Amino acid sequence: MDETLDSYDVVVIGAGSTGENVAGRVAGHGMSVAIVESHLVGGDCSYYACTPSKAMLRPPHVLAEARAVAGAREAATGTLSVDAVLERRDKFASHWKDDGQLPWLRDHGIDLVRGRGRLSGVREVTVETDAGVRVLDARRAVAICTGSDPLVPDIPGLRAAQPWTNREAISAPRVPESLAVIGGGAVGVELASAWKSLGADVTMLVREERPLAKMETFAGDAVLGALRELGIWVVTETTVVEVDRKADGTVDVTLGDGAVVHAQEVLVATGREPRTRDLGLEVVGLAPGEWIDVDDHLRVRAVAEGWLYAAGDVTHRALLTHMGKYQARICGDVIAAGDEGAASCPAAIADSIAVTRVVFTDPEVASVGLSEAAARERKVNVKVVDFDIGQIAGARLHSDDYHGQARLVVDDDRHVIVGATFVGRGVSELLHSATIAIVGEVTLERLRHAVPAFPTISEIWLRLLETLGY
What we know:
470 residues, FAD/NAD(P)-binding domain, Enolase-like, domain 1, seven-stranded mixed beta sheet, 15 helices, 21 strands
């Protein structure tokens, strides 16, 4: 292969949303930057996760909301158009083409290098492209933003069965007759809901007592009830011991108690693993296939010279698109500041104290910061307040039979909120106010002067504070 050498201030490996934001940030500081991508510019969020999955979920949610309001429910008598839902999903996934992403890179002066990039030396990335080998010299820094892959557990027969991951589940061209979902996290409950709403017979296999086991108990219980009401068969406290793809193409999933679930397809939604197996990490003394440890300025701790950075999922700090973008902005500013100015740059704190999460089921689950259990583990002097969102006028106007719950986790020594969870329709729009309160460490005494408008669901804040005595 022919080999060419190019020099840039910064080289970014991975053109997902995190890598794009690092590249855009340093380019905005006037630096030259190349971004390396072997698949689609825009990353998993644009094509196989956040955006297309929410496009699939929105139509059934709109229909359910219409049926929850007298006057509208009489008009909402039809069924979903499966073809239209999938066509809308495909549109939001840009039909799995990244043409629409490229003008943004050009407008920001970012060079795209398509191919597999690997570290090959200090401040050096070698890229295998269709046209040959390109060696990219980074005068200032290299940033690894390669993200994560779906984790396929070591269950006998599972890999041979060629299971769906979120990629196949979100890009499938037609509705499966039946689907077995292994895992009860956000990906599992969202995709189970989406495909059930489109007509699939769905079974969920959950290891814990309830889905969303890392969130507040009441959130998991609410989603469990909603999934079962939707007609999904949810098996909790179970394990999968074997998977077998039969000659007719269907799948048998054997559980620990000997029961067998028969389905057309099986979806694995059991977590993520770092996309670091083929990055040349051994060149800098790191182990391929492992998460990359970084400091709060996103510098890779193991590389003393301070030229190697990582941001996004690959750091294992907070595996969420918006948190990856947050890290990217900090990473880009630190790189641009250089050794002398980096100390004055803000450090990443939100990805440890105020991680925001939304699960787009019906009802939605939105949380930020610590759960009650997590706060107690950190030895916080915890005070917890709960309130029924259905008692709020705005909620009753939203749906005739609104069900929901809000919880604040308070540090009773400092009189500040350290965690918040909301369950109910439309509660994701409540989340940013809680995030601001936590990051800003706004005292409860001060929060009482933040007056919510009537009649909105945001009045839940008034009720929560009143319950706390403010």
